[in-house]
Write a structure and sequence with these properties.
The structure is a single chain. α1 crosses α10, α4 runs parallel beside α6 and α9 packs parallel to α10. The protein contains 15 helices and 31 strands. The chain is 27% helix and 23% strand. Strands 5-4-3-2-1-8-7-6 form an 8-stranded parallel sheet. Strands 11-10-12-13-21-20-18 form a 7-stranded mixed sheet, with helices on both faces. The radius of gyration is 27 Å and the shape is globular. It starts with a strand and ends with a strand. By secondary structure, it is of the alpha/beta class. The protein folds into 3 domains: 333 residues, Alpha-Beta Barrel (TIM Barrel); 215 residues, 3-Layer(aba) Sandwich (Rossmann fold); 97 residues, Immunoglobulin-like (Sandwich), CATH 2.60.40.1180.
């Protein structure tokens, strides 16, 4: 995959004339060069259903008079730019209006995306209908007639449906359509059939041509779904509903799947289809840098004007980010993430249902804490090899199946340690710990919220009773356990019968039992602190986790005084005999309603870094600048100071070839 991609939307109504009238191959090329773009995804078919080229399998947009797709491919290839081709799969408004019987429907016969035809918007089609045959022919035609560098199929995934076709299928199979399990099972089979047929349509013509099926979120724990693609494109527009938490979580999981992947943000101030919307250039610089720091290639969403003329303002904006990516690619390709910690995703461990929400709170809170604490980590699923890590985190809601119990015990027997919170660490089938945290579980507390008294100094906070909003687990300390703080219950829960002050009831100021325990296998914390952090952002939650991890990981690979909003990652390029440390800093601020933006990129001074490595380091330098940094190495520990950086800096640590 190329590093500097643009996803060029072109969803254009038949009510607009002059389609492509201002397209110029020279102007198209000029803007791609201005944007330092090396791959642009161009359109065969849009959400409205129209083709942007002569077609026997579809209908050309009624106001397009030439082969726009062919002209774009020819112009891009002439300057060395790749051209994956886009087809809208799940949406085709032309066919939706002609064939409403092909539409995805819920149990109340409501359509998906837009629930009636009296509202503006698209209506999603069911792949268990004759529409799939139509789509497959459209794909085959594009691959046969055009020199596409890939196929991008949009708005797809496992989707429950109770349209007439799906009802008929379930009845024919003797299955009750009122049973959600039967509906989901059919949805899984329909999606698998769709993916296999569309993949076959591509690969029987051009074997190995890249294909990606976009559902807006890569479901953690669904490797079977991920493997239906040749690569992954992590759609994650921070201002478009995904937020700045989503991409790092998704990328840290994608990195474990041994697949090429890119991070897809947008040039828009908000989201797709925002004509005249531009984010601050510094935001795009940061988002592109975040992609390469997380091991991803870069993708930026744009939308072509109906006239076919590329926006110079857009490609100046994109170019400001991609010029820097272009200079840094040498230190990003073929790089493997270095991680001390494995975060077992709640989404992966607890649900194999259809594509869910973009975020699971415990996963989000955990990734946010680990980034702010500058720990090196991967996000894993239950199929991952635990032995590659020093610490395993079971966040909040991970009860262990027999298979996971065996893997976890093997991990701790080999010297690994576990951090479990909330109900994690309990058996899937019994209310008891399956690992030795030096504690026994006795039940769920009757009080919510409750309070935590740490037995250590949570600087910069002071000694206090800290409110914990999630439910608390009651535990006792065993002989081989050590308490690191206790629970302090309130006088009573807040109800209509009795309440005190504006929010929750104050603490009794007494020890109600341990709240954090260290045992032979690791640390247990009695609250769902990761979910708490995602919801409330209370600093004490992060301090609890940092204290636990520092006990479990005394010799962590990377330490730094980078501010909490900064991000540090470490990769190794084995083929080039070097470690690559990425340092980023960008601080989103709230603008408008639920829109976080990055505008100011302040310089960060005198960042201290220590890295534990297994090699003798011969040189430390800044990339791409090439300037050497003074460093020391004592045993395995390399230390240096990064004097100044703004937004993103790569520091390279060379070691000799063996």
């Amino acid at each position: 995959m190329r590093f500097r991609q643009v996803h060029l939307d072109f969803h254009t109504s038949e009510a607009i004339g002059g389609i492509g009238a201002k397209f110029s191959a020279d102007q198209f090329q000029e803007q791609l060069k201005r944007g330092h773009v090396d791959s642009v995804t161009v359109f065969s078919k849009c959400h409205h259903g129209w083709a942007y080229h002569p077609s026997d399998a579809n209908e050309t947009h009624p106001h397009l008079t030439f082969d726009l797709l062919g002209a774009q491919i020819e112009a891009a290839h002439a300057i060395g730019v790749n051209t994956p081709v886009y087809l809208s799969a799940g949406l085709d408004e032309k066919e939706a209006r002609r064939h409403p019987e092909w539409l995805l429907r819920d149990g109340n016969d409501r359509t998906s995306w837009t629930d009636t035809f009296l509202k503006p918007g698209y209506h999603r089609l069911c792949m268990n209908s004759p529409y799939l045959d139509v789509l497959v022919k459209q794909i085959e035609e594009v691959v046969q007639r055009y020199d596409a560098d890939g196929i991008f199929l949009d708005i797809v995934g496992v989707q429950n449906c109770l349209c007439h076709n799906c009802l008929a299928t379930l009845v024919r199979e003797g299955k009750d359509p009122a049973d959600p399990a039967n509906v989901l099972d059919l949805a899984e089979r329909v999606y698998a059939n769709y993916a296999n047929r569309t993949n076959d349509a591509v690969h029987k013509v051009k074997a190995g041509l890249p294909v990606f099926h976009n559902g807006g979120h890569i479901v953690r724990g669904r490797r079977d779904l991920a493997r239906l693609n040749t690569h992954l494109e992590l759609e994650s527009l921070p201002t478009g509903g995904w937020g700045y938490d989503h991409f790092p979580l998704s990328a840290r999981y994608a990195a474990t799947l041994d697949m090429d992947y890119l991070g897809m943000t947008g040039k828009f101030h908000t989201s797709w289809g925002e004509f005249g919307g531009f984010k601050h250039p510094n935001a795009l610089r940061y988002e592109a840098a975040l992609s390469i720091a997380m091991g991803a290639k870069c993708g930026i969403g744009d939308q072509l004007h109906p006239s076919g003329e590329m926006s110079p303002a857009t490609y100046a904006l994109i170019g400001a980010a991609y010029a820097q990516v272009e200079q840094k690619e040498k230190w990003c390709g073929g790089a493997a993430n270095v991680a001390d910690i494995a975060l077992l995703s709640v989404e992966a461990a607890t649900s194999h249902a259809a594509c869910g929400a973009k975020n699971v709170k415990s996963d989000v809170g955990a990734v946010r804490m680990l980034l702010e604490g500058h720990f090196l980590f991967d996000v894993i699923d239950t199929e991952a090899d635990f032995s590659a890590y020093k610490v395993l985190i079971l966040p909040d809601h991970v009860r262990l199946s027999p298979g996971l119990v065996a893997k976890a015990r093997s991990f701790v027997n080999a010297g690994g340690r576990v951090l479990a919170t909330g109900e994690s660490g309990l058996s899937e089938s019994a209310d008891a710990f399956v690992l030795d945290f030096g504690a026994t579980w006795t039940g769920v507390s009757d009080f919510q919220p409750s309070y935590f008294h740490p037995a250590w100094n949570p600087a910069p906070l002071q000694e206090a009773a800290f409110v914990m909003y999630s439910p608390s687990q009651n535990i006792n300390v065993a002989e081989n356990g050590e308490a690191y703080g206790y629970r302090d219950d309130p006088y009573f829960n807040r109800t209509w019968e009795h309440f005190s002050s504006h929010q929750h009831t104050p603490n009794r100021d007494q020890n109600s039992g341990p709240g954090m325990v260290l045992g032979p296998d690791g640390v247990y914390v009695a609250w769902a602190v990761f979910e708490d952090y995602a919801s409330k952002g209370s600093l004490i939650c992060r301090k609890i986790v940092e204290h636990a991890l520092n006990m479990l990981l005394p010799d962590k690979t990377l330490s730094t005084n980078l501010p909490a909003q900064g991000i540090a990652t470490l990769t190794v390029q084995l083929a080039d005999n070097r470690y690559v440390c990425h340092m980023l800093y960008g601080s989103p601020v709230r603008r408008g309603e639920n829109v976080d933006v990055i505008e100011d990129l302040v310089p960060i001074l005198d960042t201290q870094v220590t890295i534990r490595v297994s090699r003798k380091i011969t040189r430390v330098y800044l990339a791409p600048q090439g300037m050497d940094l003074p460093f020391t190495q004592e045993g395995a520990v390399v230390s240096y100071v990064l004097p100044r950086f703004e937004c993103h800096q790569i520091v390279v640590l060379d070691y000799p070839a063996e």
